[in-house]
Amino acid sequence: MLSHIDSLTDEYREDDEFILLKEFAGFSYKNIIGCYVIHNKENDKYYVGQSKDVMKRLRQHFRGTVPNNVIFAEDYFSSDYENKENLFEVKIIPCETKDELDRMERELIEKYDSRNYGYNRTIGNS
């Protein structure tokens, strides 16, 4: 699985592949500048973000598979999901420029409607 994570390329722009959050735990990684989408599989809610270091940002959101912040914690701890370590999955979309990051984040928030029916509270950076 590590090689899959390390080989993040433009292929992620073309498919909708999500990786279980637990697959990222414990791996060393290269810095990835890009957008990320976190999906709660139980309630089908999404969160879209961007970062100059996506993997570091994911670690700020989660400790392993347990949420570190209020955004995801309420749903996580009230979940009836049988195996909570499989509750969240992540998609990463590498980007090159700040303009591309901002545009991609807005497009993904719209695509997943994560402002109206997800965890996002804004339409993204502008």
Automatic annotation (TrEMBL):
Name of the protein in its database record: GIY-YIG nuclease family protein
Coiled-coil intervals, chain numbering: none
InterPro entries, sorted: GIY-YIG_endonuc, GIY-YIG_endonuc_sf
Sequence ranges assigned to domain GIY-YIG in this UniProt record: 31-121
SMART domains registered for this protein in UniProt: GIYc (SM00465)
